[in-house]
Amino acid sequence: MDNRRIIESFSKYCRRCKGRCCHGIMVGLFDWELPRTEGHTLPSSPQKGVLNITFEKDCLFLKDRRCSLHSDDRLLDCLSYPVYPRIEDGRVTGLIIHKGCPYHEEISGDAELTGMVRRMWEENLWRLKPEQVAEFFSGEFWAGEMLMEI
After folding, report:
1. Are the C-beta atoms of residues 85 and 95 closer than 8 Å to each other?
2. Do residues 25 and 58 make contact, with C-beta atoms less than 8 angstroms apart?
3. CA dist., res. 122 & res. 92, Å (int)
4. Pairing with 137, which of 63, 93, 126, 146 sits 20 to 30 Å away (CA)?
5. Cis status of the peptide bond prior to 82, with omega within 30 of 0
6. How many domains does the chain have?
7. Cβ proximity of 56 and 23 under 8 Å
8. What is the distance between the alpha carbons of residues 84 and 137, in angstroms, rounded to a whole number?
C-alpha cells in the first residue's frame, strides 16, 4: 500500500481540523516500527511489543506543524487514525472508527479511503503477534462508546 495515497486521502479531513490528532493524544508504536523513529528520543521501550506514547502537548514526531516522519516511515497508528481494523483470529474482520475525530462520520462513508486503510492493515497483519494486537487495542481510547462499526 502506498502511504502517500492514504495521507492524501485523509488530508481533506485533517486540514479542516488542523490535525488535532497530533496534539495531546496517544500513539501506539509496534516494536518493528522502531527503526522508523531513528533520531527521535522515545520515552520508554515497547511492552509486549507495543509502546503506547501519550503526548501532553504535541506529538514528538511533529516538527513545524508537520509530521517529521517520511510518508514511507509513518506509523500504522498515525496512518490509520481514526479508522482501525477489527482483528479476530489473525484476520481483519471489519473496520471501526474512533469518534474522537470530528469528521468520523464523513470518513466512515469514504469507501475508497476506508478500503485503503483496511488493505494497509491486512498487508501488515503478518507482522503482528496476538499479544501485540491485544496490547495495541487496550485502554480507554478503545472504550466502546467512542467506537463505531463501519
Report:
1. yes
2. no
3. 6
4. 63
5. yes
6. 1
7. no
8. 10
Report residue 74 as a C-alpha cell. Answer: 509513518
Q: Specify which residues 85 forms β-bridges with.
A: 95
Rounded Cα gap, residues 64 and 87, in angstroms: 35
Cα 38 from Cα 11, distance rounded (Å): 25
How far apart are the C-alpha atoms of 66 and 60, rounded to whole Å? 11
DSSP letter at 79 equals: H
Write out pLDDT tens, residues 52-104: 888 788 888 888 878 899 999 999 999 999 999 999 999 999 999 999 899 99
Instruction: Please tell me the total number of residues recorded for the chain in this structure.
Output: 150
> Would you tell me the crossing angle of helices 111-124 and 3-17 to the nearest 10 degrees?
130
